[in-house]
Amino acid sequence: MPRLSSPQAFDEAVAYTRSLSPATFDTWFAGVQFDDLTDGVLTLRAANEFVQEWIELNFLPTLTARLRELTEKSVQVVWLLDPQLPRPIAVGPTVTPVRPRTLHLRPSDAPPISTAEPPRSVPQPARAAHCVNLVDLNPKQ
Predict the structure, then answer these.
(1) Phi and psi (nearest 5°) for 110?
(2) Whole-angstrom Cα distance, residue 38 to residue 71?
(3) Is residue 90 part of a domain?
(4) Is residue 134 one of the residues assigned to a domain?
(5) 27 in a domain, yes or no?
(6) Which position among 33, 48, 76, 105 has the lowest Cβ density within 10 Å, counted as fewest Cβ atoms?
(7) What SS3 state is found at 45?
(8) Is residue 24 part of a domain?
(9) 60 is in which domain, residue-wise?
(10) Average pLDDT, the chain
(11) CATH number (domain holding residue 19)
(12) pLDDT of residue 131
């Protein structure tokens, strides 16, 4: 296999890694940005430490193994934390924020207010009239 340039190799490694689990990949890599791949050093930015750790555990071994195959170089990863990622690797699922609605109860819908007396204290259970010798409970005898 011919050696690819760094950007081509990274794009190919990303495509391969994404093909294994597209929905999960898109969700997590929406919080990661590719900065550089030079001389076997891959620089990535993560939106936060949680994203970085999850990627390291679940996707990074596959991604770096594929990069090693494509570039024929060992790969080290350098992480930078940056909550602002102008060029994320993937576009994650968009979640439309929902404004909570105010709940209005009509008096007829409200549960009745209980006028019962509060519960009285519960008496303690009665003690056994005799004590059982635990030694006599062995079923092997």
Answers:
(1) -70, 145
(2) 10
(3) no
(4) no
(5) yes
(6) 105
(7) strand
(8) yes
(9) 6-81
(10) 82
(11) 3.30.300.180
(12) 61
* Number of domains the chain contains: 1
**Is the C-alpha dihedral spanning 13, 17, 19, 22 positive or negative?**
negative
CA atoms of 16 and 19, how far apart (whole Å): 5
Q: Distances from the Cα of 29 to the Cαs of 46, 47, 67, 81, in angstroms?
A: 9, 10, 17, 14
The C-alpha angle with vertex 31 and arms to 29 and 35, in degrees rounded to 5, equals 80
Tokens 């005898």 locate to: 141
Q: Encode the chain (141 residues) as per-residue pLDDT tens digits.
A: 556 678 889 999 999 999 999 999 999 999 999 999 999 999 999 999 999 999 999 999 999 999 999 999 999 999 999 999 999 999 876 445 566 777 776 766 666 666 667 667 777 776 665 666 666 666 665
DSSP string for 89-128: SS-PPP----PPPPP---TTTSPPPP-SPPPPPPPPPPPP
Q: Sign of the C-alpha dihedral, residues 127, 130, 131, 136? A: negative
pTM reported for the whole predicted model: 0.62
The residue behind tokens 């006599």 is: 136
